[in-house]
Known about the structure:
Blueprint: H1 70-78, H2 83-87, H3 93-99, H4 135-148, H5 156-166, H6 171-182, H7 189-195, H8 213-229, H9 234-241, H10 245-254, H11 266-301, H12 307-319, H13 321-343, H14 345-354, H15 359-371, H16 376-388, H17 393-398, H18 404-423, H19 426-436, H20 438-441, H21 450-465, H22 470-477, H23 484-504, H24 507-518, H25 522-541, H26 545-550, H27 552-565, H28 568-574, H29 578-594, H30 603-620, H31 627-640, H32 645-653, H33 656-665, H34 670-679, H35 695-704, H36 708-717, H37 725-739, H38 746-759, H39 764-776
Amino acid sequence: xxxxxxxxxxxxxxxxxxxxxxxxxxxxxxxxxxxxxxxxxxxxxxxxxxxxxxxxxxxxxxxxxxxxxxxxxxxxxxxxxxxxxxxxxxxxxxxxxxxxxxxxxxxxxxxxxxxxxxxxxxxxxxxxxxxxxxxxxxxxxxxxxxxxxxxxxxxxxxxxxxxxxxxxxxxxxxxxxxxxxxxxxxxxxxxxxxxxxxxxxxxxxxxxxxxxxxxxxxxxxxxxxxxxxxxxxxxxxxxxxxxxxxxxxxxxxxxxxxxxxxxxxxxxxxxxxxxxxxxxxxxxxxxxxxxxxxxxxxxxxxxxxxxxxxxxxxxxxxxxxxxxxxxxxxxxxxxxxxxxxxxxxxxxxxxxxxxxxxxxxxxxxxxxxxxxxxxxxxxxxxxxxxxxxxxxxxxxxxxxxxxxxxxxxxxxxxxxxxxxxxxxxxxxxxxxxxxxxxxxxxxxxxxxxxxxxxxxxxxxxxxxxxxxxxxxxxxxxxxxxxxxxxxxxxxxxxxxxxxxxxxxxxxxxxxxxxxxxxxxxxxxxxxxxxxxxxxxxxxxxxxxxxxxxxxxxxxxxxxxxxxxxxxxxxxxxxxxxxxxxxxxxxxxxxxxxxxxxxxxxxxxxxxxxxxxxxxxxxxxxxxxxxxxxxxxxxxxxxxxxxxxxxxxxxxxxxxxxxxxxxxxxxxxxxxxxxxxxxxxxxxxxxxxxxxxxxxxxxxxxxxxxxxxxxxxxxxxxxxxxxxxxxxxxxxxxxxxxxxxxxxxxxxxxxxxxxxxxxxxxxxxxxxxxxxxxxxxxx
Length: 778
């Protein structure tokens, strides 16, 4: 795999920058330039509500709040004064009557994420590291913030400045209060203080600021304290500036933070990335529908097909021109998205810093989709670089991308590993994975904890490759508390371990380990499902000989061990089985397609994996599909793989519970069940109201030890002594089911059969055949 190298365009440094903004590069015409401060078009941020006539409020004079003493407002909040009382010093009676009530609702994008994990915590400016704030200062700020939110929103800018002035000597208080104001996003409370209706930095019609110089200085000092403490960062200021550019230009200039401008070509780059993203999303949705449709077709009926028939059925489905076009489009759009992101990486990174909420969101979406694709290495390489340095421009941007770390590390590592194992030998694949994660070895600030995790995870992978699964098992057992990095490495360890086990002939040892993990409940199921999905994603996109030979046997091994380890009935009752259905559904399709390209040696592993996938889907799947459509699809593909119309009709009508009883409880092979379906079609179709309750028959066979080939032989020949063998077989089995009662032991069934022999003399030969089969078991 070749990962195109790209160096990001780094926005101007935020440390010691001149307050004067440099000449902005030319942009596409659809991006409007920022108006100067005081420009009526964008001089202030206005919440989404009907405009208010600011000149007159019910006959009142223009609203120009006079400066007030800091202590009075702060004290009003301390005393828990109601909103109207707290505003009385600022608003006239007419204004109070007009504006009484809560602030208008505005959109609150998820920007601030102060409780991020170790790799997602943003530093302040590049030279400042986040630090722990004083607990007492934080508690006081939180108390004041709660009271502040009970005040009228028009008075909050002034009340905020007065609280900040009162605590001018406590930078931790100031930083935390700013963080609380900023947590509601670029259109929330901090924006209200700066550029709202009564924002302190708004220029009035008279050309003067709404707030006094002292009030503005108090807010600027608090913003600087928040930057120094790492509570907010320069990327946050960029995001806020997009809402009210003219106002924030002054604020950021006063803080020596240069306003970043999107680079030339940003509009075209963003548009290209967004289009490629949309195309891939559409293709992925269509492919998922096809996977679910195939899984449902085989969920109930798959156990009735032989190994060769399963392979042929899957191939017939996936090579159906209508379906093949969908899978081909999935890979084509994934490759296109990876190419577009790489080609535009430097421009997109600079644009993301200048506009985190707009252009940044486009880059984030593209990377997260790529991380869950067959081109995950692209997202992993870029994402690891961003996450490794929280003080860098992109590090500050991704600090507020929510679960980006989970998606780019946990998913990206797993999927990139599968791609590397399909393309390279294990040694080369492991070296390439380390290269992709190299930035995390030199992680800075809070992200520095990644170094030890990476070291531990890579060591676990090395041990798994050598056949020692102790460390891998330990990682799996700590799944719930593990970081996204460690989860991704754990999944990668299972994949490397499976491939190495097959190459070294240690399949049994590996399967035993994985079966134990899968039986550990939810955490084990999530781990193994992650392995299945990552390997399947590669198989979806590249069903070439390299995948079939290198990765398909490992996928089959993992699928089979997982299915054996999970106690399905209990799991379905206690957990959400949705992701398991999806994982086994993905595995089912690619394993079937890989069979025709796989050398003879590991075919058994793949076939076992297919059987395991069908079993899991059959037990857990609850997806509703139109019965007529499902029947038509099965009829079409069964005919294509050479199943006779008569047998096809019986297989499609077979009762799922009867399939389970014949195939798994009695252990009759799929080929023999099909023979029974031809000669005794009623045996499989309990749903046709033939009245046959089969459970007591199963208990009788098991009590006598008649299973597998012996069970098939008895069912197929027991009526041979009667002129109508099918009818006689049905009569005897039906009477066993009706008369068995609580029979459980061989002696119980001996008495039952003797009684039936007396009651049904014309069917004595059929009953004698059962007794003879009993005696043959010794």
